[in-house]
Amino acid sequence: MNSTLLPGPAAMPTAPAQAQDGGKVAVLFGGTSGEREISILSGTAVLQALQAQGVDAIAFDPAYQPLTELRTLGVCRCFIALHGRGGEDGTVQGALELLGIPYTGSGVLASSIAMHKGVTKQLWRGAGLPTPDWRIALREEEALQALDALGLPMVVKPCREGSSLGVTIVRDPAECAAAYRLAAQRDGEVLCERFVDGDELTVAILDGAEGPQALPVLRIVAEDACYDYQNKYFNDTTRYCMDVPAALAQSVQERALGAYAALRCRGWARADVMVDRATQAPLLLEMNTSPGMTSHSLVPMAARAVGMEYGALCMQVLGCATLDGAP
Questions:
Q1: According to the UniProt entry, where is the signal peptide (predicted)?
Q2: Cys bridge to 179: 160, 168, 258, 289, which one at CB 3.0-4.6 A?
Q3: Same domain flag for 117 and 235
Q4: Considering 3, 33, 35, 42, which one is annotated as catalytic?
Q5: Across 292-314, average pLDDT
Q6: pLDDT (tens digit per residue) in 178-223
Q7: 190: domain range?
Q8: Residue 198: left if φ>0, alpha if ψ -120 to 50, beta else—which one?
Q9: Total tally of structural domains belonging to the chain
Q10: Per-residue pLDDT reduced to its tens digit, 38-79
Q11: In whole angstroms, what is the distance from residue 207 CA to residue 213 CA?
Q12: Do the annotations mark residue 197 as ligand-binding?
């Protein structure tokens, strides 16, 4: 896969012509996951942006409309603004494959793998990419065993969930059982991960004519150092900085592009990274294959930094809509 870094406006990827040319587009948002509220915010913004660009775009909520209705409506492409399980995990992608309707973002395989944090980390390790040590817990006693292996602090979270839902940072052994139970309410598989003390970074990746390109790296500074659901989407005190030293930013971008390629992602995605304070080593946490597009979302912020406004970003993503195996 041909991958490049994206340093500034001159290198902005160019959206394929078909983004503006062809047919009705359904913006899929809402759905049934725990991230429904955020998906509605993302999808509404994308819908308005596409319509403002002259695209014949309609709203479509799979929670209330069967996907087969897309054919009845004459939809030619789908912009997936669904987040979490049932929309970002390969299930909707598989249905659209069967319907023969091209869609934005990664295909079935990459979507399903990236949604499972444990399998993602296994693939990254196999590809020689750095990620914090982890264990998978299927029972409460396995979470306690993971604590013995990984030490304190330890992050406990559902394997297949996003937006920091069900996440606990365990700082005392007495908190481990409750943390496991909270995560297990959302997923039968729970990821126990070594806590990394350091800066939280994120880097968006967009496909362009020359292959995947990494946008500028953002450093996240959240209130009380807790980038949880509230601080991600509804707290204006969270700050997003572009003050990452150039050498570190390039290293993070390169790792993110490697992570994107290892998972066979396409179209766009966003990699989350922690930088170990002691070693300054970037460690990959997860890959989001249907990133948020709200007013607080990170991909639009990074795109603006290279001169790409929100509407152009939506058109770029839409222009990469395709089916698995398509040339």
A1: none
A2: 168
A3: yes
A4: 35
A5: 94
A6: 999 999 999 999 999 999 999 999 999 999 989 999 999 999 998 6
A7: 134-194
A8: left
A9: 2
A10: 999 999 999 999 999 999 999 999 999 999 999 999 999 999
A11: 6
A12: no
pLDDT value, residue 327: 76
- 97 in active site: no
What confidence tens digit (pLDDT) does each residue in 101-159 have?
Answer: 999 999 999 999 999 999 999 999 999 999 999 999 999 999 999 999 999 999 999 99
What are the residues whose beta carbons fall under 8 Å from the beta carbon of 311, sequence distance 6 or more? Answer: 49, 50, 52, 53
- Is 286 among the annotated ligand-binding positions? yes
Q: Is residue 73 located within the same domain as residue 219?
A: yes
pLDDT of residue 226: 53
Confidence of residue 235 (pLDDT cuts 50, 70, 90): low
DSSP strands (E only) in the chain = 4-5, 24-28, 57-60, 75-80, 134-137, 154-158, 168-170, 190-194, 198-208, 211-214, 218-221, 239-241, 268-276, 282-288
CATH code at 146?
A: 3.30.1490.20
- Residue from 33, 106, 111, 297 carrying the catalytic annotation: 297
Q: Are 237 and 296 in contact (CB under 8 A)?
A: no
Say how far apart CA 200 and CA 267 lie, in whole Å: 24
Q: Is 163 a catalytic residue?
A: yes
Check which CATH number belongs to the domain holding 271 and give it: 3.30.470.20
**Active-site position among 39, 106, 163, 251:** 163
How far is Cα 216 from Cα 36, in angstroms, rounded to an integer? 28
Residue 33 appears among annotated catalytic residues: no
